């Protein structure tokens, strides 16, 4: 029956298939949203308070901004990373390796491309919401509201989609859950530190500035900061384009990795 339904399908990324996976994720999320929300929002907020008021007592201004405001806008990207890449890595691995959830989903008229896409869309939506929490905390501590801030959920969503696909890709290539330690230590931690969140990249050596400008997390930081303090025209358009390209690349590689994994 599943084979017959799959043969009768009309095309790629069919809306009923995507909707089915998304509805399942929403229903499942309703059972653990408190713990997920806590872990995804409290840690970036702690970074904001610790760095903002810790270093802020020593460095009043940086890059022309009050340090609390500088960090407050930057930690939005941290919240996006924590609420997208990490849940995607661990959640995806557990679902296909231990719970066998993906085997059950793929028995329905849903293919791997639709499964990965729906998962990434859902994680990106959560990241778009959670990413706003540090900014709201920063507003409570003196960051002036601006109309551009209404674009922050969209910026966080675009960045979250790319990082969600990155996490799914890592889970697809990983042979064991212990392999995630290499990715967290050697990839995510350096990207997190060299993103312009806690200090401007202009203070780094030239080679580090060059690599930092290739960091998708840095583009997210700059876009959120400019949303709060004023956009920079075509420069920010280019940053949005970089995030979109990152998301599309990770999306296709994630689909390849999961297709390879689920076939094996």
If you had to describe this structure to a student in words, what would you say it looks like?
It is a single chain. The chain is mostly helical. Helix content is 73%, strand content 2%. It is built from 12 helices and 2 strands, in the order αααββααααααααα. It has helices spanning 2-7, 15-29, 33-54, 67-97, 101-106, 112-130, 133-140, 152-173, 180-193, 206-212, 216-229, 234-263, and strands at 61-62, 65-66. The chain has a two-stranded antiparallel sheet with strand order 1-2. α3 (33-54) runs antiparallel to α4 and α8 (152-173) packs parallel to α12. The relative contact order is 0.14.
Question: What keyword list fits this structure?
Answer:
disordered N terminus; single chain; mainly alpha
Give a quick rundown of the structure:
By secondary structure, the protein is mainly α. The protein is 73% helix and 2% strand. It has helices spanning 2-7, 15-29, 33-54, 67-97, 101-106, 112-130, 133-140, 152-173, 180-193, 206-212, 216-229, 234-263, and strands at 61-62, 65-66.
**Uncertain regions: pLDDT < 50 for 5+ in a row?**
1-8
The ordered string of helix (H) and strand (E) elements is: HHHEEHHHHHHHHH
Tally of separate helices: 12
Number of strands: 2
Q: How far is it from the N-terminal to the C-terminal residue, by CA?
A: 22 Å
Largest sheet, in brief, is:
2 strands, antiparallel
Helix/strand-derived category reads mainly alpha
Instruction: Categorize the overall geometry.
Output: globular
The helix content, as a percent range, equals over 70%
Mean pLDDT: 87
Beta-strand share of residues: under 5%
Strand adjacency order, main sheet = 1-2
Q: Roughly how many Å is the radius of gyration?
A: 19 Å
């Amino acid at each position: 029956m599943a084979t017959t339904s799959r043969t009768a399908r009309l095309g790629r990324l069919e809306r009923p298939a995507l909707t089915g996976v998304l509805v399942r994720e929403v229903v499942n999320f309703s059972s653990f949203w408190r713990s997920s929300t806590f872990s995804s929002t409290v840690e970036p907020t702690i970074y904001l308070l610790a760095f903002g008021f810790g270093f802020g007592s020593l460095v009043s201004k940086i890059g022309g901004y009050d340090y609390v405001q500088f960090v407050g806008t930057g930690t939005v990207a941290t919240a996006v990373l924590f609420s997208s890449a990490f849940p995607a890595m661990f959640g995806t691995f557990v679902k296909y390796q231990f719970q066998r959830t993906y085997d059950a989903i793929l028995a329905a008229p849903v293919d791997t491309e639709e499964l990965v896409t729906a998962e990434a869309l859902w994680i990106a939506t959560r990241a778009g919401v959670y990413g706003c929490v540090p900014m709201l905390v920063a507003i409570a501590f003196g960051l002036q509201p601006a109309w551009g801030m209404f674009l922050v959920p969209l910026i966080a969503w675009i960045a979250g989609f790319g990082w969600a696909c990155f996490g799914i890709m890592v889970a697809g290539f990983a042979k064991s859950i212990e392999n995630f330690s290499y990715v967290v230590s050697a990839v995510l931690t350096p990207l997190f530190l060299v993103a312009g969140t806690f200090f401007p990249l202009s203070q780094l050596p030239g080679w580090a500035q060059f690599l930092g400008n290739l960091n998708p997390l840095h583009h997210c930081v700059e876009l959120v900061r400019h949303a709060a303090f004023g956009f920079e025209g075509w420069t920010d358009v280019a940053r949005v384009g970089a995030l979109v390209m990152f998301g599309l690349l990770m999306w296709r590689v994630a689909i390849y990795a999961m297709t390879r994994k689920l076939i094996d």
